[in-house]
Amino acid sequence: MPKPNQKEKNKSSEKPPEETPECEEEGATAAATLSNILKELKEFRTETTGNLAAIKKDIGEIKKDVSDLRARVNAAEERIAENESRDIQMTKVLFHVLRTQKQLEEKCQDLESRSRRKNLRIYMIPERLEGSDMVNFISKLLNEKLGIMGVKIERAHRVSANGGGRPGSTRPRSVLVRFQSYWERQRVLSAAWSKKEIRLNDTRIFFDEDFTPQVYAERAKYISVRKEMRARNIKSRILYPAKLKVFGANGHVKVFDTPQAAAEGLKEFGITMDYQTKEEPNFETLLKASGWQSPRRRSGRANDLTSCLKTLLSSMAHLNATEDE
């Protein structure tokens, strides 16, 4: 049997190291630390479980709110569609009302113009010259200046003009004379127009027809250009309702139906007419000015709201899928 060598004897004779107090203290500390970690992990798990439950509850409430919003949006879209349909019908009715109103205005203006056919206006008669009886004064005036007698006059009176007859105004008010028939008025007017000049107490007076305010406003646009034509010895005349008749050289005659046409046509005579074109607004412009908008434009907000809700629903679906994983 072989004998163990000296090294093996020395190894077998060595004893394991004894545990010191320091090692025991380190082991106890590690055990306590591990216990604390396990405790904290349990608390974190409990807290996380509670938070997830609260999140699930909040998600459920959000789903309910989104579902309610979807129902409300659908109901709102239905009401908007009904309102748009009703608005289209009301717009058609409004178009009809506006057209009818324009026709009625034209008819009223025509009736007013016809009711004034028996009227005659005399301009530049000095104030208070008529005394207390205007009808008797006009009868004598027609007899003395025009040689017309026995004219039947219904009434005659001064007409308030822009400042005429007021303190500080030098222009007297015009006199409105109403005859019993159109033919009597026309006879007086023709006699007055046949005379080049009629004077009363060294004051030149003028006879003319009686028109509506709208016609006077249109005729007033020719005042400045007619002065320029008189300065150039170009004869002109205003026809009813507001047409300008120009007598050119060599018997050349032109008639302009509107002030706008006159502004363009007078350039041929070397005359510039200061006239600003004013376009009449159409029905759609009037509706837009009153706050009307097309149905397509109004439905844009509802479409935007629907798009936002769809995006929110898509995000909620993605969140639910992540939670399930």
UniProtKB/TrEMBL annotation:
Keyword Coiled coil: yes
Superkingdom, taxonomy of origin: Eukaryota
Source organism: Mugilogobius chulae
Protein known as: L1 transposable element RRM domain-containing protein
Region listing for Disordered, in residue ranges: 1-28
Record's keyword terms, sorted: Coiled coil
Biased composition (Basic and acidic residues): 1-18
Coiled-coil segments: 52-121
